[in-house]
Amino acid sequence: MTSTYMVPMQPAVRVRPAVETAPVTVYGNRWCGITQMTRRLLDRAGVPYRYVDLDLHPETARRLRWMAGGDVRNPVVDVGGQLLEQPTARELQWALARAGLL
């Protein structure tokens, strides 16, 4: 027997907040071979990332130099808040795996 006052229970729905930016950001230069290799590695792994060209954004380059306490070697890769300066492929893959992106 069904009652007109019974409302079927709906399962709880969890909504994930929208991700506004990719969890990985690559800071580098178009002319830098290591920057381009890093970007290719991320492309091949299918990891979404944001790219910031430091030649076009000198204020970001100044901020990175301040954070590093001096000169910065390109590229700088931000993986979920961890900054990697000129990472090797193995270091980048380890950081991506640790962040759950691989």
UniProtKB/TrEMBL annotation:
User: InterPro entries, per this entry?
Assistant: Glutaredoxin, Thioredoxin-like_sf
* Domain (Glutaredoxin): residue spans on this chain: 24-83
Question: According to the lineage, what is the superkingdom?
Answer: Bacteria
> SUPFAM superfamilies, per this entry?
Thioredoxin-like
PROSITE patterns xref list: GLUTAREDOXIN_2
Question: This chain belongs to which protein, by name?
Answer: Glutaredoxin family protein
The species this protein belongs to is Blastococcus deserti
